Input
Amino acid sequence: MSRGSNSDFDALHGMTLRILMKMLQAAESNTLVSGKDDDGEPLFVLPPPALLAQAIKFLKENGIDSPATSGKKVDTLAASMPDFDQLELGSNVVSIRK
Output
């Protein structure tokens, strides 16, 4: 059996992504159960754990570890951090760069 072409793998990747998204969207739309708990909060049913595990695995294997949106909390935190290359090093600090 010969190896598939890159376009074949791209198509399979896209189909897998679309199917996982459709399955998760369908599960999300059916999560609200008619009724409320003892505190008056709506009851929710989670999607099947195997479906969530597959989606998480798919994201991890494709190097996705956070949403690709601007203004993420991590970006805000990073912007508030000092630029250590610009700081003056005191006499007790040794640079590890060559």
User: Anything to note?
Assistant: The chain has a mean pLDDT of 74.
